[in-house]
Amino acid sequence: MKLHGYFRSSAAYRVRIALNLKGLTAEHLPHHLRKGEQSAPAYLALNPQGLVPTLEKSGAVLTQSLAIIEWLDETHPSPPLLPKDPLRRAKVRAFALAIACDIHPVQNLKVLARLRQLGLAEEQVTEWAAWVNREGLSACEALVKGEKGPFCFGDKPTMADLCLVPQLANARRFGVDVSAFPRLLEAEAAGKEMKAFADAAPDRQSDAE
Q1: pLDDT over 80 (residue 209)
Q2: Cβ proximity of 206 and 29 under 8 Å
Q3: Rounded to two decimals, what is the model's pTM?
């Protein structure tokens, strides 16, 4: 199994956590996003979107972090990353999608580069990313406020936590005061106590700058 990623990519970070929780090993192949290595012809032949992560397994190619995580959960069901109950599954997916679809893509490297091309000052670009994170995480805080912890949805990590921990790291990089999200911080702390989360952190990766 091969995982194409970048140490600071929150999407790749999610998949690294999932692999660790499942006890799976993968060859990690880094693509430096700031140097444009994701746009190399060889990589675009593998992933036409030019995004990370990409997972290769026995000739099959999977893209999009949540699709990869669900495939891992279906093919290696222990420990489960989605609840058995359909309603609970939907709630976990909704939380994960709120981050993966509504927060992360709007503040990622590609969007910020485009804002710079349009003439925005660096301070404005950073504030845009911070605003996106503050607004999105505020909604996520409300989504799990009434849920028993310590994780987002109970006493075990789910796909929701795999998305949350990397996104909080992003928020901090953009200067967001995350103390406004105590329930999210509780879930993050629970995750960071686990080796699977700690070993997946950007500063633990071989391609970390």
Answers
A1: no
A2: no
A3: 0.97
